[in-house]
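Sample pair:
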Amino acid sequence: MSGIFQRQQLANVISFSRLGFLPFIVLAGVLKQPAVFVGLFAVQLLLDAVDGCVARRLHIESDLGRRLDTWIDLAIWLPSLAIFIWLVWDEFARIFPVYPHLFIIPTITSILMYITAYHYLHAVAAIHLYSGKLASALVLLLMVTMLLDRFYPFLGYLTACAGVVYHLEAMTIYVLKQDQTDENITSIVQVFRG
């Protein structure tokens, strides 16, 4: 029985382990250790991908796991992005006036995605689509380049576009599937095939 319990909870344990990185991410930011900050952030992103893969491969997806993953994402991403902007404030203050849309538009679409999810599912939720994983990887790459004081507009546009595509794709799925949204969907193609 304990073997079954452990197997059923493996993805959730991996998700919870991501929270263990948060105090160290915050500490790295406070101590102004940008390389450590980005390294820790990257490892927790990798664990985010791993927990979903484990859940799908072992067929142990659960409503608890989906909601847990969303809440952990918010708990890590919101303070991490705030700390990151603080770490690169000089670079950010130089870039933002020229490219405000690269930061504002993805933020607005993200908020709209969560509002749409709440409207249809009556809960804070985010579908973990492949486009979202791509957007996360590009955010990490953008973080690294900004820490090196090298902002590349093309990478900024690519990252913003990936984020907007993810948010719009998720919103479309919520609207099409409404309260029947299957959080195990990895792309909108599955909705049209199914």
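Residues 89-194 form one domain.
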